[in-house]
Each structure stands twice: as structure tokens, then as C-alpha cells.
């Protein structure tokens, strides 16, 4: 079967750095996405990785290792507004998105 | 950037009635649209994939006669929840992509349905 695993909840301090991990087993791979979702809102796109390595976008970076079936989302200089759920999703061989359950990130002052 | 709208943003209906939710891509042609459902504190669950001009492909466990999807044009897809029941209360989100080799999906803002 296809499976995406990510921690259910994480807590971090404002101004700090947090890394949210995602491991996957899917039938085929056409890229991995990270989305941010605030409560009651639709997800917004953060990043897309299809090749191994680190993609940096401002305070957010995403890393992919296809051989390990592993990705992480790195958030730097955390702000209170970063409190949200972070969803990992993999595009499989049919270009269908397989979603993780999301990681709820709680930022404390 | 690519914008996807949904209407209505929230709706309350009585049990047994039908509700139609519209999803529009405002500045691009969406050859594929996806409909998701999200229950509180749960991840998005794909309900169906629709390609313009053809029948939608439903995920296992999703009743196609209950959740009618019409993708009549390259900018509009509709989801009709027929004979709604309280257990259908959920957050319904559509997304659109410009083609098979898409880079990302563009999400609509979602529609919160409450069935009383």
C-alpha cells in the first residue's frame, strides 16, 4: 500500500528553527509537496521537490532523498503566524497526490 | 498567480436537500480538477478527480450517485451533494491543475457544509 508518515504534532519557540520530517512509500514518485494549512482554511503551497537535495525559499527550506523515501521541511526564525498544520504529499506514478495526515506545529512565545 | 475560487464559502442546509458547490479557475484553464473532503483534525481526503468533458473518477468508498461532479468547461467544476445528511457535514475543497505534468495544484478556499 501507499503510505506517508509525519509526526502528529510538534512544538517550537518563536525565533527558533524546527524540522518536520516526512517518510513515504508510494507506487512511483513524481515529486513531493509541502503545504501549509491554517485551521479552517484550504492548504497553501509551500514547496515542491522532485530531485534530491535542498530547496530554499526564504525562511522555509525543503529537502528530499528519494533513495531513503524521506523529506523534511525546515522552518527558520519561527513566527507566531507559522502555527499551522504542515502537510506532506507525494505525487505517485499516476500523478495522484497521496497525502500525509499533517503535522500540527505549535509556536510558543 | 493562479487563482481558484469556490462558491459558496459556507452553507447550511437541511437534511435531505441537495447542495451545489462551484469551483472556478479564474485565470487559467484547468484540465483537471480535484475534489477533497476534510473532517476536523484530519487530513485532506481525495474524493474524485475530474477531467474536462469526461466523467469523474471517484475514489474507493465515495458514492458517485451521492456526490455528483460535473466538469463542463475548462474553468468550472461543480460538486453536488445530493440528499445531504448530517454526516456529510465537512469542509469541501477543490483544486485545479493545468495538465497532467502539473507542477502544483492550486487550491480553492474551501466550502464549509453544515447539514442540520
Topology of helices and strands:
The complex is a heterodimer of chains A (109) and B (116).
Chain A: E1 3-5, E2 9-13, E3 18-25, E4 32-37, E5 44-49, E6 53-57, E7 60-65, E8 70-75, E9 84-91, E10 97-99, E11 103-108
Chain B: E1 4-7, E2 10-13, E3 19-25, E4 32-38, E5 45-51, E6 57-58, E7 67-73, E8 76-81, E9 90-97, E10 106-107, E11 111-115
Parallel strand pairs in B: 2-11
Antiparallel strand pairs in B: 1-3, 3-8, 4-5, 4-9, 5-6, 7-8, 9-10, 9-11
Would you mind describing this structure in some detail?
The complex is a heterodimer of chains A (109) and B (116). With 109 residues, chain A is mostly beta strands. In chain A, 0% of the residues lie in helices and 57% in strands. In chain A, the strands form 2 sheets. In chain A, strands 2, 4, 5, 9, 10 and 11 form a 6-stranded mixed beta sheet that branches. Chain A has a 5-stranded antiparallel beta sheet with strand order 1-3-8-7-6, with no helix packed on it. The mean pLDDT of chain A is 91. Chain B is globular, with a radius of gyration of 13 Å. The N and C termini of chain B lie far apart (37 Å). The model of chain B has no long low-confidence stretch (mean pLDDT 87). The A-B interface holds A 33, 40-45, 48, 87, 95-97, 99-102 and B 34, 42-46, 49, 91, 93, 100-110, 112.
Brief overview:
The complex is a heterodimer of chains A (109) and B (116). With 109 residues, chain A is mostly beta strands.
